[in-house]
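seq as requested:
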Amino acid sequence: MEKKVAKALLEIQAVFLRPDEPFTWASGIKSPIYCDNRLILTSPEQRVIVENAIAETVKREYPDAEVLMGTSTAGIAHAAIAASILEMPMGYVRGSAKDHGRQNKIEGRLQAGQKVVVIEDLISTGGSVIDVVDALREAQAEVLGIVSIFTYGMQKGLDRLAAANVKNVSLTNLDAVAEAAAEIGYIKDEDVARLLKFRDNPSDESWITAK
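struct tokens:
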């Protein structure tokens, strides 16, 4: 599944790889990769692959799940489609509570004690998805874990998820994408090591000149 989803993301350029012309993140970090999983929604063939993979992962990894909760905003559509496949209820968690009406942070019906799986499109350092998990726990939901479409596999993200005691299962990851990209000639074989060096320590820019 990792390789199949990786190839699907590469086919629609939801993942860009530019080890020789790095992207600059908002944090200032130089990155050889940029991921935009919103493009999945406008690509029917790849959307079927990804959404079925999400649904299958929920069934396999979290068989007791009762509700899917998407992250705002990128995870909402994926949670909705997967929930439709699984015939399950879904909702989503706002980045912050509304300042009007009922001032909800969690949208959709959620009862105390319900078993929830969070649907996220992308995990880097893990901060935003852990905020979602915290909000659900504050609402007395039982968070079984996360299903994400892509993860960089950065140590900071792994450590944060472990500290929060939350399980994450990603459909694919940087390792699989790099391998698939080399196989189709999108990047050179030697670029795979550069990408993994970035993953291991994003603040160390020595991968840029490691050719």
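The helical segments are 2-11, 44-61, 74-86, 127-138, 155-163, 174-183, 189-200.
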